[in-house]
Structure formats: structure tokens, C-alpha cells
Amino acid sequence: MGKIRLVTTITCAALLLLSTAIYAADDIQKQVDDIRGALPKFAVPMREVGDRFQNMYFAAKEGNWALAAYMSKYMDKAMNPAKVTKPTEYEAWKTFYAETFAPVNKAIQAQDMKAFEKEHNAVIQHCNNCHAGMGYGFIKVIKMQTPADAGIDYKVTSKATDVPK
Ligand code: HEC
């Protein structure tokens, strides 16, 4: 094989490999975009936040403190897809849950209904402040008279620490 032919063959093989790699990277990027596009943003998980927020009140009121703690835990976890789909806005949620919502969680852990009632009421204003701040002032959370989910026995007696890790 002549030197030129060898160089040409190697170059062609290298180009072929490179274009395959670029094509594969493009394909992976498209798949990542598709998956991200299929994940919920804020609206879907916020429905869950709303329901769990209401439910925890009835759990606490009936002394089912583990259920109250559980509702709070998954109220937060429900927002996980937004880490990927709305990273900037997710940071605001993260701070809200870690700081603004902390007194509610503290009252649950202390199983203190008086403190819980006060803090659970007070935080509604902050939920709504975030809505207004993000252009959703028309979504105004109000306290429900009955739980969002009727299919759970709120009257089971439990301790806040009963929630499995
Ligand atoms: C970090 C900002 C932020 C915080 C904090 C927040 N929300 Fe929201 N919430 C939103 C946004 C943004 C929407 C609108 C969703 C959209 O269009 O993407 C929303 C929508 C909602 C909805 C309507 C969901 C639907 O589509 O039916 C409910 C209910 C709700 N929030 C409840 C709450 C409750 C309860 C709290 C407090 C415990 C809370 N939110 C705290 C940003 C926030």
C-alpha cells in the first residue's frame, strides 16, 4: 500500500468514527431533552404540595403526628422534578422549605398542636407571596375545612418519629 493511500485510509476511518461520535452525542442530547420535557415543572407537583399541606393539618389535629411528618416530607420531595426542569425557581422552593417552613416542621417534631396551628396558618401567607412573586398572584391558597384526601384515617395515633427514614 502506498504511503498516500495509507494516510487517506486512516483519515477516512478517523472521520467516520468522529461523525459517528457526533451523531451519537446529538442523539443522546435529544434523548435528554425529551426526558426533561416529559418531567413535570411546577404546576403538577404544586398540586401535590397543596394537598399534602392541607392533609398534614388534619393529621396533626387528630394526633397522627407520623402522618403529619410524612405529609411534610413528601410535600417537599414532590418538588424534586423541578430541580431538573426549573433549577432557578427550585432554589426558591428549597429555601422556602428549609427556612420559612421550618417552624411547621419543628412543631410537628415537638408534637405541639398549639404551635403547629399557629405556624401552619402563618405560612399560608408565604406560599401566596411566592405565587405573587412568580406572577401567579391569582393562585391563592386557603385553609380547607376537610382534608384534600378523604381516603386516609387521620385518627391513627402515632409519633412524629415513626416515619421510616
Ligand atoms: C418557590 C415558590 C413557591 C412556593 C414557596 C409555593 N408555591 Fe405553590 N406554586 C408556585 C408556582 C410558580 C405555581 C404555578 C405553577 C406553574 O404554572 O408552573 C404554584 C401553584 C400552586 C398551586 C396550584 C396547582 C394547580 O395547578 O392546581 C397550589 C395548590 C399551590 N401552588 C400550593 C402551594 C402551597 C400550599 C404552598 C406553601 C406550602 C406553596 N404552593 C408554595 C410557586 C410556589
What does this structure look like?
This protein has helices spanning 3-38, 43-61, 65-77, 81-85, 87-100, 102-110, 113-133. It has two domains: 1-38; 43-162, no CATH class. The protein is mainly α and 165 residues long. The mean pLDDT is 95. It is built from seven helices and no strands. The chain binds heme C (HEC). Heme C (HEC) binds next to helix 2, helix 5 and helix 7.
User: Can you count the helices?
Assistant: 7
Low-confidence stretches: none
- Please give the domain count: 2
Strand content: under 5%
Distance from N terminus to C terminus (CA atoms, Å) equals: 68 Å
- What share of residues is helical? over 70%
- State Rg: 25 Å
User: What ligands are attached or bound here?
Assistant: heme C
Structural category: mainly alpha
What is the mean pLDDT? 95
Overall geometry comes to elongated
How would you sum up this structure in a few lines?
The chain has seven helices and no strands. The protein has helices at residues 3-38, 43-61, 65-77, 81-85, 87-100, 102-110, 113-133.
What is the element layout, followed by pairings?
Blueprint: H1 3-38, H2 43-61, H3 65-77, H4 81-85, H5 87-100, H6 102-110, H7 113-133
Residues 41-43, 46-47, 49-50, 53, 89, 92-93, 96, 123, 127, 130-131, 134, 136, 139, 141 line the site of heme C.
